[in-house]
Design brief:
Distance between the termini: 69 Å
Strand content: 5-15%
Strand order of the largest sheet: 1-2
Number of helices: 5
Order of helices and strands: EEHHHHH
Number of strands: 2
Largest sheet: 2 strands, antiparallel
Shape: elongated
Helix content: 40-55%
Length: 126
């Protein structure tokens, strides 16, 4: 900060004096305004799209209900479920039709929680 000065600001009735400051110019200038896309950022975006496609392939290729439920759970825990809404909805429709009577405690609780989180009706004796 270089120096402080006071500037009078007038309103209809009173004069208010406010402090103003003059700051040194930024060392960055306008670099970020003119350089919004960098090669590294483009590479990251391409890699992210590749990984999203791999996850979509997992949904298509996996037929085991427990693996699909674990995949959905992991995606939700990572906070990435908004990228795969269509795939998750299709998988949950398949899961909701599956009989959970042969599941053990972990599988049953995961099945129940995933379906309830997404608004499916789950009968408490399944």
């Amino acid at each position: 900060m270089e120096k402080q000065s006071t500037t009078p600001v007038s309103s209809n009735e009173d004069i208010v004096i406010r402090k103003t400051s003059k700051y040194h110019p930024s060392i960055w200038n306008d670099y970020f305004i003119h350089h919004t896309t960098t090669p590294a950022l483009t590479e990251v975006s391409i890699r992210a799209e590749e990984l999203k496609e791999q996850i979509k392939n997992l949904f298509r290729e996996t037929s085991d209900i427990l693996q699909i439920m674990n995949l959905i759970d992991a995606i939700q825990l990572l906070g990435l479920d908004y990228h795969f809404e269509k795939e998750i909805d299709a998988a949950l429709s398949l899961i909701s039709k599956h009989d959970a009577k042969n599941f053990e405690l972990y599988e049953t609780s995961l099945w129940f929680r995933l379906l309830r989180q997404h608004g499916f009706y789950v009968p408490p004796g399944s």
